[in-house]
Amino acid sequence: MIQKPNFKKAYILANEMLVASKSITTFPFDVEKVVSEETDLKFCSYKRALEKFGLNCFDLGSDSSVLTKLHGKNIVFYNQDECDVREPFNRLHETGHFLLNHKTDIKENDALYGIQEIETNYFASQMLLPFQILKEIERRGVKIDERFLMKHFGVSFSCAKHRAETLNKRIFLTNEEKIFDDIILMKFSKFIDSIAKERHFYSCWDDPMQKERDSWQ
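User: That's the sequence. What structure does it adopt?
Assistant: Structure tokens below.
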């Protein structure tokens, strides 16, 4: 049996964190604060790892970020020289590996490696660019493209491009996956209103003189 990415698990996990987190009140948000609310994960830059532990993180297999255990602690090492807008995604990607109980000691040519990468990318994207919020913004008539996402959500071009493309795909969600939709939209309603005003269609019933005209009958 061919194993496939568990999109549902990654999506629900991200939604649970979006709802439960006290640190996420708007976008973009401080990833480190959010992760510290839910896990014992620590973050450390590649530079500090080399200075403090004598550890060259590039030897661990990634130029951007990597999850590993050091001195009994789960640590996400990240490349401080990466563009600032890429760091949040990188950190959440590694956090996803931890929360989804992924195997971190497998090779890139292992089929499971690719599956896990897809799941963590999906998790990180939902955290940084919640599907429910984007669809609500789209419903209000706002065109969502890379520039819009980069400006209002503080993500990189590659992250914004991929998310904008997925919005155009037909995605069928189960009732279990939709359970947090209303809560998320309510929690971030101020943020949504700040970048996408609700469309208002004028009708005669909106006319302040209509009440007076009604009284003539």
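The radius of gyration is 21 Å.
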